[in-house]
Design a protein that fits this description.
Structural class: alpha+beta
Helix content: 25-40%
Distance between the termini: 17 Å
Radius of gyration: 26 Å
Oligomer: single chain
Length: 417
């Protein structure tokens, strides 16, 4: 691609009706938007929001598991629907921070560390939402940041932020771009709902295929397995060997031989990975790895990972390695994953650390007939495969959208001058 002129950028992809629309117009952002500096009134109806690069603007309680703002919120900024919030701290997704629009609620309050702004009448907030998502503004932000600040927060004031230049097409083209990307968002949302429905279906199956507390048999059994004495309950320590993971954090390599299994790896289903060459604690195929420590109300505590290959995974500290010896290893994985007995140790206030003794006491119910174990495993595996396939569909749509974002907006990081 040829480098773009800073005075006349055009995207690589335009809708046919705008092929002759000419270059996008250059504007200073403060001509289009104003800072939001309204302060909290301290009312009970004000939701305290935090900005997540992945989730957008969400209630603090949902994100952190508790309110962290304290009682004195008089300095917090009051925002309304369609306001934009900028967190000028570098993230993995953007080295210059995240910009998100409030769409989930009608309003709330945010920390004064954030920079908030609102587009003036006549501007299309949907278009600008996608503009920032495409990171079309980052070339301009780069000129405001000194190299020393790029390791953390940049301390860019809202007035300085609004001094950047942006490029915009005509209002009809803005609307057309926004409509196109909104249709992709709608499709992503629909496919995500299908994935979540499959997850809910799996949870429903788990409640039927395993005994609930106080029961000795599951609610649902397959027709070929009806022996009323067919299930037993034993402490985990009687059916599996236990080993604590080892400290790998000082031995992380960019491209090591082993994937380091830590809480982050397990909680993201393997998406976030670190590597090491050390053999302190190497898992074997069929081992069940479980998170022992998590934040209050966290989603990783007692979450499990089933090792699918020998000599591939290194078990980090605060993760336990469990090797089944009197039960099918995959059945143990399903029975142990986020077990209610272990989740009950989370008081919702403090970080939870599961002890070895607590883990080994965890009651595991299972059928004595290995064929019944296998039938339950096959049923749940089938649903997992559907969930994985649906998740891949969602990711493919997200990748498609990212490709569109890069083509529908000028590549301003290639602008001359």
């Amino acid at each position: 691609m040829d480098k773009l002129s800073s005075d006349s950028p055009t995207p690589t992809l335009r809708f046919p009706e705008f092929d002759d629309g000419g270059a996008w117009q250059r504007e200073t952002l403060r001509r289009l938007a104003s800072p939001v500096k309204d302060k909290s009134t301290g009312g009970d109806n004000e939701d305290t929001l935090t900005l997540s690069g992945e989730m957008g603007l969400v209630p603090q309680g949902d994100y952190f598991g508790k309110q962290i703002s304290g009682e004195n919120v008089s300095r917090y900024i009051k925002i309304v629907r369609d306001d934009f919030v900028y967190n000028d701290r570098t993230t993995k997704a953007s080295k210059f921070g995240s910009i998100k629009r409030l769409t989930s609620t009608d309003g709330g309050i945010v920390s004064p560390i954030y920079k908030c702004f609102r587009f003036k009448g006549g501007q299309n907030p949907d278009f600008w939402d996608h503009y920032f998502e495409a990171q079309a503004h980052e070339a301009q932000l780069g000129g405001l940041v000194n190299e020393g600040a790029r390791a953390g927060r940049f301390n860019i004031s809202i007035d300085k932020f609004l001094s950047i230049d942006v490029w915009k097409p005509s209002s009809p083209e803005q609307e057309r771009i926004a409509e196109c990307l909104a249709s992709i968002d709608t499709l992503i949302e629909a496919e995500t709902e299908k994935r979540d429905a499959l997850k809910d279906h799996k949870q429903g199956l788990m409640l039927e295929l395993f005994p609930v507390k106080g029961e000795t048999l599951p609610k649902r059994r397959f027709s070929e397995f009806q022996d009323p004495a067919g299930w037993v309950e034993k402490p985990l320590g009687e059916i599996a060997d236990y080993e604590n993971g080892k400290a790998y954090e000082k031995d992380i390599e960019e491209d090591g031989d082993f994937v380091v299994v830590n809480a982050r790896f397990i909680s993201t289903d393997g998406e976030v990975r670190k590597y090491s060459n050390k053999r302190y604690c190497i898992a074997s195929k069929g081992d069940v790895l479980m998170v022992l420590s998590d934040l209050p109300k966290g989603r990783a505590l007692a979450k499990c990972f089933l090792v699918d290959e020998d000599e591939k995974y290194a078990v980090n500290q605060r993760v336990s390695r469990l090797t089944a010896h009197s039960i099918d290893c995959t059945f143990l994985y399903y029975a142990l994953d986020r077990h209610p007995f272990l989740l009950a140790f989370n008081d919702g206030l403090n970080q939870t650390h599961l002890s070895k003794g607590s883990v080994l006491e965890c009651p595991i119910a299972f059928p004595l007939d290995e064929n019944e174990q296998a039938k339950i495993v096959a049923t749940l595996k089938s649903v997992d495969e559907q969930i994985t396939s649906q998740a891949q569909t969602v990711e493919q749509l997200k990748d498609h959208k990212q490709g569109l974002l890069q083509q529908l907006f000028p590549v301003l990081d290639e602008v001359d001058g």
